[in-house]
TrEMBL record:
Disulfide bridge positions per record: 16-34
A GO cellular component entry from the record: apoplast
Protein name: Germin-like protein
Binding sites annotated in the UniProt record for oxalate: 99, 104
Keywords: Apoplast, Disulfide bond, Glycoprotein, Manganese, Metal-binding, Secreted, Signal
Transferase recorded as keyword: no
Gene3D superfamilies: Jelly Rolls (2.60.120.10)
Binding site for Mn(2+): 97, 99, 104, 143
Residue ranges annotated for the Cupin type-1 domain, each copy included: 48-198
Family: Belongs to the germin family.
GO molecular function: manganese ion binding
InterPro entries per the UniProt record, alphabetical: Cupin_1, Germin, RmlC-like_jellyroll, RmlC_Cupin_sf
GO process annotations (BP): plasmodesmata-mediated intercellular transport; regulation of root development
UniProt source species: Brassica oleracea var. oleracea
Length: 208
């Protein structure tokens, strides 16, 4: 059977700007309230959220992803898209992950990135991206991005075809202890003899 994925529904009006929460409004689209159209301003369609570098030292992967949301860009609501700024420290990696509801297009702005995805037949597609070059990740497929420079940082911008792309990191989904996948299942899956506590060690390294 083929993959079954869904996309955001088309809006039924020009826009549905997401306002601050209010108990007096009761029209919801995509889970958010709609601001009174007569009170919409140009600032609802503008954000500086992607203008500031992210802290790549806050996690062991040495990367930071900053996304537009209906909080920092209210006019995004119902538009079916998200933008992201990807900051990479030296050798930083966005680990293999999937977006169940979105395809992704990434533009390298600085540095050199090794990017790729795996299709459902097991084929791996990889490419080095230099500044100004673009790569597309199909919806629902495992993909990754890696800064191949061991000294310098890198920067990219991505566009995703959903207001809420959904993100699942393969390693964290299977090995994060908070998700409670039984260790016996993981040992069978990864052919691990866990007498030396490999599963527990990996979970600890992932923050579990």
């Amino acid at each position: 059977m083929g993959r079954r994925v869904s996309s955001d529904p088309d809006p039924l009006q020009d826009y549905c700007v997401s306002p601050p929460l209010s108990p007096h409004q009761h029209i919801f689209l995509n889970g958010n309230l709609c601001k009174d159209p007569t009170k919409v301003t140009v600032y609802d369609f503008t954000t500086s959220a992607l203008s500031k570098p992210g802290n790549t030292g806050a996690n062991p992967f040495m990367t930071n992803v900053t996304l537009t949301t209906t909080t920092n860009l209210p006019g995004l609501n119902t538009m079916g898209l998200t933008m992201g700024r990807l900051d990479f420290g030296a050798s930083g990696v966005v680990p293999p992950h999937v977006h169940a509801r979105a395809s992704e297009v990434t533009v390298c702005l600085d540095g050199v990135l090794l990017v790729g995805f795996v299709d459902t037949s097991g084929r791996v597609f990889t490419q080095e991206l230099h500044p100004g070059e673009t790569f597309m990740f199909p919806k629902g497929l495992i993909h990754f991005l890696y800064n191949i420079n061991t000294v310098s940082s890198a920067l990219a911008v991505s566009g995703l075809t959903s207001q809420n792309p959904g993100t699942q990191f393969v390693s964290m989904v299977s090995l994060d202890s908070k998700l409670q996948i039984p260790q016996d299942v993981l040992k069978r899956l990864y052919h691990i003899n866990d007498q030396e506590g490999y599963v527990a060690s990996i979970r600890k390294n992932l923050g579990g």
